[in-house]
Amino acid sequence: MQPVYTYDHIHLRTRDPQATIEFYVKMFDAKRVEFVQSNGIPRVDLDLNGLTIFIAEVAAGAVMPAAPDKPYIGLDHLGLRVDDVDAATAELKRRGALVVKEPVTIRPGIRIAFIQGPDNVRIELLQRTVIEVGAAAGR
């Protein structure tokens, strides 16, 4: 029998969990689901419209590299689908988000923008529009 893989969560580590939690609550209306201890380390779980985000604190003295500020090998960004990327970007700006890439159409039917999250996490806003085959061919 073939395994079936489905999404479960993303796990963010931070030196400032409260600021990270507040960011996702303020920007995206995420809801605190629970506070748990994972191997003796406190963690807060958030629900962002079905996207589960684990937020765990990195100890002040722990030696851990920070995420780089440019694209790199490995996990590059978190993508969130929206109905209207222009409206979503405007609302996030109103809420205080740092927009690092204004909305742009990257190909027919795909429009994106990027904001900067805590700990250098890049967050993509993605709008997918269904393009009819005849319309895409210019007919």
Describe this protein's structure.
- It is a single chain.
- The protein is of the alpha/beta class.
- The chain has helices at residues 17-28, 85-94, 133-136, and strands at residues 10-14, 31-38, 41-48, 51-57, 78-81, 98-107, 110-116, 122-128.
- It has two domains: 1-61, 2,3-Dihydroxybiphenyl 1,2-Dioxygenase, domain 1, CATH 3.10.180; 77-139, 2,3-Dihydroxybiphenyl 1,2-Dioxygenase, domain 1.
- It is built from three helices and eight strands, in the order E-H-E-E-E-E-H-E-E-E-H.
- The strands form two sheets. A four-stranded mixed sheet has the order 1-4-3-2, with helices on one face. Strands 5-8-7-6 form a four-stranded mixed sheet, with helices on one face.
- Strand 7 (110-116) and strand 8 (122-128) form a beta hairpin.
- The longest helix has 12 residues, at 17-28.
- It is globular and about 60 Å long.
